[in-house]
Inverse folding.
């Protein structure tokens, strides 16, 4: 199971050691397997499509595409390393890969989870730098690469304790890759540190960066519009003012930036807050240790990779470039060709039937005219 789920089950195991009626491996199998399979499909398909379109497509080389490529790679790793191993582990229930694999798999799961979050933070910082200093071109690529390297280094650094904390252990007669603390206050400290490093600090940085971006765009656009009016003698109906206002270029830029900001921040918070809030409430004793709560806990933890599934969807919604490239992928391209072929065949069939009907009507008309001419000739001869 994923590192988040095992944290939750470990807490329940520690708080219910004297209870023989609680099954720490009880969960709603059909529902959770369905959710996990859907998450795996969306994460792998969506992020693979993004990486393919950026690497194999004709996209121009930009810092934005560079960050999105790394973010898609981190999200794809979440699907393949975290969600896929979670599915396999839920199928076998017990851990059968050995103690070394236990530590390595858990370490990699935490690394890609942190990387998915920290690359998003790095992207936010880069967008902030691009808006605040639009003419600062020198060293921009070097700063972008440094941000990506820092994101991955911090992810590895914060994941090192997992190599020490996780180990094989028998839990309710099942061999598990497990984490355990002797005292409850240690669990509380552990979850506070995880919450701060994985959610609170990244959310604060992302929110701050995009808030400053909105304020900067709003201020600069208003200043540009005011200076344009002054240059034209305060005439609101001048050509320059019309370009900036009546065509709606500045308002559209503002609205699009605000939408992207709200979506990125909101999706990040919605995807991670259930896991963080539930775990914090649990370690501080606000959620009773019952069988249904254990099943609910494992289900809530399964939604932690949801942000990795949401990111490619956000790209497609706000970027027509990505949507066009997605439809150029081999499966989508094949479907489009098949659809066009059916439409073309239908058009040809319709045209053929119309032509056949036209020829039939023409033939009947000619026969009718010929018959009328013969009758008229016979009538004339008879009259004579």
């Amino acid at each position: 199971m994923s590192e988040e789920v095992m944290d939750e089950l470990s807490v329940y195991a520690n708080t219910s050691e004297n209870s023989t009626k609680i099954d720490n491996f009880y969960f709603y199998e059909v529902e959770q397997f369905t959710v996990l399979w859907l998450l795996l499909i969306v994460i792998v398909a969506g992020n693979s499509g993004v990486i393919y379109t950026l690497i194999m497509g004709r996209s121009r080389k930009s810092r934005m595409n560079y960050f999105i490529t790394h973010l898609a790679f981190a999200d794809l790793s979440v699907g393949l390393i975290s969600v896929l191993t979670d599915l396999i582990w839920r199928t076998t229930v017990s851990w059968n890969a050995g103690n070394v694999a236990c530590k390595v798999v858990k370490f990699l799961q935490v690394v890609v989870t942190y990387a998915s979050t920290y690359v998003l933070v790095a992207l936010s910082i880069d967008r902030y730098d691009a808006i605040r200093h639009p003419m600062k071109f020198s060293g921009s690529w070097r700063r972008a690469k440094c941000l990506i390297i820092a994101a991955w280094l911090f992810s590895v650094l914060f994941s090192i304790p997992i190599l020490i904390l996780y180990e094989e252990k028998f839990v309710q007669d099942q061999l598990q890759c497990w984490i355990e603390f002797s005292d409850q206050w240690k669990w509380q400290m552990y979850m506070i540190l995880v919450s701060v490093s994985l959610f609170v600090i990244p959310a604060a940085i992302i929110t701050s960066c995009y808030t400053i971006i909105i304020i900067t765009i709003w201020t600069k656009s208003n200043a540009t519009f005011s200076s344009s009016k002054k240059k034209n003698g305060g005439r609101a109906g001048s050509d320059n003012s019309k370009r900036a206002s009546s065509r709606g270029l500045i308002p559209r830029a503002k609205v699009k930036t605000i939408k992207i900001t709200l979506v990125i921040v909101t999706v990040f918070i919605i995807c991670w807050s259930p896991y963080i809030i539930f775990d914090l409430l649990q370690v501080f004793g606000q959620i009773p240790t019952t069988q249904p709560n254990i099943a609910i806990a494992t289900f809530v933890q399964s939604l932690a990779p949801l942000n990795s599934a949401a990111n490619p969807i956000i790209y497609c919604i706000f970027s027509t470039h990505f949507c066009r490239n997605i439809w150029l992928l081999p499966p989508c391209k094949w479907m489009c060709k098949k659809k066009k072929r059916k439409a073309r065949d239908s058009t040809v069939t319709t045209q053929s039937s119309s032509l056949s009907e036209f020829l039939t009507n023409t033939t009947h008309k000619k026969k009718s005219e010929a018959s009328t001419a013969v009758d008229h000739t016979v009538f004339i001869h008879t009259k004579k």
Notes: Residues 15-20, 241-250, 377-384 have pLDDT under 50 and may be disordered. The chain is about 80% helix and 5% strand. The domain at 3-206+289-337 is CATH 1.20.1070.10 (Rhopdopsin 7-helix transmembrane proteins).
